[in-house]
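#onboarding

Welcome to the new folks! Below is a worked example of what a typical request in this channel looks like: someone posts a single protein sequence, and someone else replies with the predicted structure as tokens. Don't worry about understanding the tokens yet, we'll cover that in week two.

Example request:
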Amino acid sequence: MGTNTFSKLPEDRQTEILDAATHVIAQKGFFQAGINEICQAAGISNGALYKYFGSKKGLYITVARRTLELTTTKADQILSLEMDIWERLRHLLEEILTFTTEFRDYFIIYMDLSSPSMDPLAAELTNAFEQMSFKFYRQLILGAREKKKLERKCPLKPLHI
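Example response:
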């Protein structure tokens, strides 16, 4: 995430900066959120933003990667639970609802990736989200198959629509 300079900041400070930037971008939209407004909310100078992320686009990509990191962490936690597939799916739905409340701004960023106006940025990011989702569901299905809780009819190849 971000540049080497950004990664040298304490983790809690990185989170504060990304949370503040995410809030502004989620409320205003990527194209309407101004650099000055983002920097003021994050408590950093304009120069620091460029030093940490290279550009506003670099910041957005870092925010999207943080969103992916948050969702991957939740997915890994769900996969580690000793539950059958149906309990895990129920738990997944509960976690999605919790995520949309607890990390509302990150959820808005995730949803915005699919908007046509974000096409130039989305191309760089959606593949990572799709890969994470495929990996999660594949592991969920394989685990259920191993425990004989799911028939082998369920395909494990990614669909290309």
